[in-house]
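Pilot study result, target chain (262 residues):
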Amino acid sequence: MSQTPELSVVCRSCGSEVSPYVTECPYCGHRLRKRAPRLEREGDEIKVRESRRERRRRRRRQRAAERSASATGARPLATGATLAAGAVLLVLGRAVPLTLSELGAIVGPVGDEPWRYVTAPFVYDDLGALFVTGLAIWVFGGAVERRLGTLATATLILATGTLGALAAGAAHSAGITDSLVLAGGNGVALGLLAAWAMLWRAQSRQALAEPLETVAVTVAAIVLLLLPVVESGADPIAGLAGGLVGLAMGALAGRRNAPGGG
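Predicted structure:
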């Protein structure tokens, strides 16, 4: 006896799940396909014959599911290393002691020391700045890392921090800002928050995301955006640029990891 296939086709018009054999939705009459699908037998089971395009889509969905499964539950190594670097540099600066510039922060034009764009987001002026920024990095960075894995999260952290610092330097060179002092990862924190929001948005479309704590996320974003008011090293341009980079990279990752994504 041939087995009846599962109802696996969803009508785009009414959302009902219907048989893959039909050409029109029996509930609303919406046209599902131009012609009835071809069938093929595999052992005792009758299945709908897949076209090349459908096979490619199914394989992409399988690869996306495998990537998601391998990344889920990953230890937050990149997030932890980011916080550890900030803590070590803060302790080192107090113990030696060393100035912010000697630790790798940006104080004035960078000149022939472009490496400061990479190191500045990991240098903190005081424990309060490290605590506020580090808490956001830990919460949102850990959530991102559990979804994307360590390598992708490390790339995201470096991109948000470095590009944020570059944007702050460009704004100073263009005369938009009067002074340039950059120390701390507010751009990294905003970038991770934005990337997490885009990943959550992509997952929520597939009903796979946990409930969003809107108030908590909004408060965290406001605190990070207002951090430059009380911390001289938290550059507002770097924060905004880091957030935009996080939005873009999070949206790209969300599309790639979504079922049917590339």
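One observation from the pilot: Confidence is low (pLDDT under 50) at residues 1-7. A full batch analysis is planned for the follow-on phase.
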